[in-house]
Structure formats: C-alpha cells, structure tokens
Amino acid sequence: MLTIPNILNTPEFLDAPLDYKWDRKLSDYHAVDAMNDKLGVALFALNHKSTFGIAAALSEWIYWRLSKHINIPEIVPILEAQWAADIDKRYSYLWEFRDAAKIDAEQRKAYNTIWVMLWILDTPKFAYFDGRFFINLNIDKLAILARYISPDKKMFDAWYDNVFKRAAKLFPAQYDRSEIMENRSAYQGKTYDSSGEPVISREFFWDEKFDYQTADNTRLINDFLSGLDYENNPYLNSPDKMLELGFKGTPYQYEPK
Prior knowledge:
Oligomer: single chain
Number of strands: 0
C-alpha cells in the first residue's frame, strides 16, 4: 500500500480547500489544450524510466491533493501498478480506468480532476509500454494540472525543479530525440527497449536529498514490491503471467542486473 510522501503529508496540503476554479471549459483545457513547450522539450533530456517515474509522481501529487475530498478505491492500485511498471513493464499492462458509478455533487470537482489526470496519463502510459521514442508527450499537461490544483505553487515548483534536475543528471536519454524529429521517416515503426535502463526507487522522486548513488536501492525496490498484492490489485500481473511474458528471475523480487 502506498503511503503519502512526507513532503505532502501536511495539513496545509491535505486539508486545503479545493478552491481552484473548475468547469467544463477548464476540464477540456487541461485534458486537451494545456501545454508548456519549455517543460515538454526539457523532458527530452530524460531516459524512459525517469520520465515515466516523473509521470507517476505527478499522478500521485494530484491524487494526494484530492484524497481528503473524494474516495476512489481504484486510484491507489493504479498508482502502485504504475510504479511497478517503472521497475519492469511486465508487472502491469495497458489498463483502462473503470468509471465510478455514483459520485456526489460535492465530489464532482475532485472526481473530474482525477478523471482528467487519468486521461492525460494514457499518452505516456502507452508510449512507455510500446517503447515509443517520444515518451515525454503530455507529461507537461500532468505538471500543469498538478501545479494548478496545488495550494502552494512555490512548493510544487521547488519540488519539480529538484527532481527534474537530479533525474537529468543521473538518467539522461539514451538517444537524441531531436535527431529523431528531424528524421522521422527513418525511425518509423521502430521502438526503444528501456529494460536496460537503471531501475529507480520511488523514494528518489519524493526525497529531495535522496542520493541514488549511495542509497540501498535494491532494498527500497524490494520493500516496495513486497508490499504489493497482485491477487487483489487488478492492475498488476500475476507471477505466472509475468513469466509467460518473458520475465527473467523471480517475480516480485528485484535482482539488480
């Protein structure tokens, strides 16, 4: 079970009223039209696992911001599956969110914000699982949404700036996306295998002082995996399914390559 990161575990964050403006027009804007070219291009610098990890962290940020205002039991299992897939894609699959049957009028704003988050997440999710070169697409939308609903936008900016700079230094992209943009026809139909990239623990994204090079990453990743319940999380694959998909080793145990 995911626990709330310390940086977000404050009354100022969790108990803040949902006083951001939200209507159909704003919902459509965040789902479709929101864009930050500078942020999106900057993400070109990151490899696939760090990029998908940032998408997972942004999704968590949005969820925890709304967690006191709405209860959608499926969201935590989805987030767990997303973090697990960042370790190895075979832990999860290209899931679809099943719409909640009944939402009270008081919860509509929070629910619709969650729905927009999951809508946006589809693009990097498919890109990551399919090995598409431009995995960074739409992650700027997640960042814009997370910042928009944050009660303290300076806090969000400081967190994002910190995690991005550390990720860019430690986990650079393994190919030049600008070259691919200039030669799209040469790369058409080709994919990228991110399985050889360094595995990143969830803690890296939430602890600004986290030192990846000295941390016991193997223990942290195994602690996370041991807390997953694939029998009760419909977004996780069973060990048998993982082995069927070609997983090497023991499912739900991390062994550094």
